[in-house]
Design brief:
This protein has 2 domains: 164 residues, Rossmann fold (3-Layer(aba) Sandwich), CATH 3.40.50; 125 residues, Rossmann fold, CATH 3.40.50.920. The protein is 38% helix and 21% strand. It contains 12 helices and 14 strands. It has a 7-stranded mixed sheet, with helices on both faces. Helix 2 links the parallel strand 2 and strand 3. Helix 1 runs parallel beside helix 7, helix 3 runs parallel beside helix 5 and helix 9 packs across helix 10. It is globular and about 60 Å long.
């Protein structure tokens, strides 16, 4: 099974699309020579801008390019892009309605060993609260490809968060329909629903198998678009299953779980658990170690599911 970093897939997809679309631009902050976008910079130097360590500037420059008819993709570490330049994202991209795609690379706890300064586990909370800004997270290389293709043709500001490390596949291929704002039912089930996004979709699928071994049927929803949220899929899950568990590489405050809970509590209250990073500086360590420490595992989701269903 191939395991490829999602950032590599974004680069490869933009490289292919740029062959026929000269308006595609890539901007980077001190990462021209990194594995993230170096091939694009080499192939299309006239469509690549390196600004150095200046995240506020990169967002402003990208907004100016968008005003000029270009299709800019900003690639910068998620921890800095989503925090250091949040005012420019709010004003220059969202409020000004510019066609900028903000790609937060090495997101979540990808920079695990570097600690809180390099973790980005509040980015979904702050970006989804900004009017006029869509928020997305792909689950694997196949979804990253389809999402990138869709974003080139999508007009409007978007924040996309991807991880740093190679990701295990959750799809067999990219031959499926990807729709912005439409959740994907990865597995069907009637007892409870697990809703995940990004790299936790793989964990949710493993939890489906673990619950199956316990005689429970778990629906798995890949909520790749946090905003606009697929509220219909959430309401249907609350009506058709007895409980909901959300799983995210993000703070338990303001992210996917909070977004789902806002829908559930207003339309169809059911027992629910939000599984993520608690209200503390996340521990330093490799991604898998951080996931285990905070219970972002199939076994823990199984335990929570049994608990919610009174088993």
């Amino acid at each position: 099974m191939n395991k490829i970093p999602n950032r590599q897939v974004i680069c490869e997809t933009l490289l292919e699309l740029a062959k026929t679309d000269r308006d595609i631009m890539v901007l980077a902050s001190d990462s021209r020579g990194s594995a993230a976008m170096a091939p694009f910079a080499k192939a299309y130097p006239e469509q690549f801008v390196e600004v150095g360590i200046a995240e506020q500037n990169i967002v402003g420059i990208s907004a100016g390019l968008a005003h000029s008819g270009k299709k800019p993709f900003v690639t910068s570490p998620a921890c800095f892009l989503s925090m250091r330049s949040i005012e420019q994202i709010k004003v220059d991209v969202a409020y000004s309605a510019t066609n900028v795609k903000l790609v937060g690379i090495s997101g979540g706890v990808s920079y695990g060993a570097l600690g809180m300064s390099h973790h980005s586990v509040q980015d979904l909370a702050v970006t989804r609260a900004i009017p006029g800004l869509a928020v997305m997270m792909p689950a694997d290389r196949h979804e990253t490809k389809r999402m990138t293709e869709a974003l080139v043709g999508y007009t409007g500001g978007v924040y996309i968060r991807i991880g740093r490390n190679p990701v295990e596949d959750v799809y067999e291929s990219d031959d499926y329909e990807f729709v912005i704002g439409k959740a994907v039912t990865m597995r069907d089930g009637a007892d409870l629903t697990i809703i995940a996004s990004g790299e936790t979709v793989r964990v949710a699928l493993d939890a489906h198998e673990a619950l199956k071994s316990a005689g429970l049927s778990a629906r798995v929803l890949n909520m790749h678009t946090i905003k606009p949220l697929d509220e219909e899929a959430i309401r249907r899950a609350a009506s058709e299953t007895r409980a909901i568990i959300t799983v995210e590489e993000h703070s338990i405050h303001g992210g996917l779980g909070a977004a789902v809970a806002e829908v559930v509590v207003q339309h169809k209250p059911v027992p629910m658990r939000i599984l993520g990073i608690p209200d503390e500086p996340a521990i330093a360590g490799k991604t898998a170690e951080v996931f285990r420490h905070y219970g972002l595992t199939a076994d823990n989701i199984k335990r929570l599911g049994l608990e919610l269903l009174g088993r």
